[in-house]
Amino acid sequence: MTLRSAFRGLFGLRVRGKERLVTEGPVLVVSNHQSFLDPPLIGGLYEDEMYYLARKTLFRGPAKWLYTKWKAIPVDQDRPDMASLKTIIRLLKQGNRVLVFPEGERTGDGALGQAQPGVGLIALKSGAVIQPIRIRGAREALPRGSGRVRFARIDVHVGHPLAFTPDELKRASGKEGYQMVADRIMKAIGEL
């Protein structure tokens, strides 16, 4: 049974815009973050592997093996450094697909949060295609702070790949420029 089939059976998963998924070459997949269900939910949209970020604190005990097997990249949310960003950029330049959540953490109330500038830096430095995705219903299925799965419909909306104009790229340098790109990415997610 594929992940997609499991999500369809458990949560009535509906995917809109699947034909827009970029499946060739380096792809920076960006999505809002509602639940621990999000990485496998988005990973199940693709036929092959994907890398994604996970809190460094999850890489303990037997879970370390599991997260490593799932191609997770540890990130320290309390003290972010350039190491994880460089890893993502390197993976993208090698032609891989990487999932990031621009908000940096799961939503508590379901609303979209502020994008962090790091996603803008990754987008600009990697040169990868940017694939926006919006998830609805995963928060209701497995809310932040809960260990209990609830049966709620989950909808995934795949947007058109983003492209930046040469003028936008010229203005996008330094922290302000990275934030401008991150905000544009979050706006694309919000419009889905």
From TrEMBL:
The Phospholipid/glycerol acyltransferase domain is annotated at 27-138
CDD domains, per database record: LPLAT_AGPAT-like (cd07989)
Q: Does the keyword Acyltransferase apply?
A: yes
- This chain belongs to which protein, by name? Lysophospholipid acyltransferase family protein
GO MF annotation list: acyltransferase activity
The UniProt keywords, alphabetically, are:
Acyltransferase, Transferase
Tell me the route in metabolism or biology where this protein functions.
Answer: Lipid metabolism
